[in-house]
Amino acid sequence: MRVAAAWADDYRYILGVQLRARLAPEPPRELLEGDRVPILLLPGIYESWYYLEPLARLLNGRGHPVVAVPELGRNVSGLAESGRVVAARLRVAGTRDLVVLGHSKGGLVGKELMLGRLGDRVRGMVTINTPFAGSTRARWFPGGPVRALSDRDLAIRDLSRRRDADHRIVSIYAAFDPHVPGGSFLAGARNVRVDAVGHFRIVGHPDVRRAVLDAVARFDTAGT
């Protein structure tokens, strides 16, 4: 019953976020201000930057400038293409020495970025409910972009085998994620399991907020 109720709450939450996101296609300019390590937002599939807005505000309030990648659109492209889009944005913006904050597929795109030519610009990455090994549930989803997140997808398997960046990743995940039933544990990373159920609403969970702040602070201090 708890899982069913949490799943329903999850969809109500993300529907509300999607509706409000239409009024905020890009982050307000004040989020670009700050003198601490920059944060790069990489939301999940079918999400805009606005999904991560609560955490963006929280981190910006601690002095971190926040950068988004509007060119990702709804984040439905393949991982390699999405990684190139993000890299192009960083080249134009000149952003360096940053921390990635990714949700779900955004964490996969972030890992692709970390393993690419601009990987040295990324100090570390904090992810929330990212299917690093793919999702068994994605196999049966009617939309092709979601099926590409299946545990059987070749790009997912290839990315999973490439572990050079894993030690710079903090993976935060729910005790049960209905979209990623296999969980988001990543060997070699710092893993933080939160006593919560859900895939979307978890971004507002107090333990997730604390874990994100702690992880970003560690990366910030490590670079000084």
UniProtKB/TrEMBL annotation:
Full protein name: Alpha/beta hydrolase family protein
According to its UniProt entry, this protein's organism is Salana multivorans
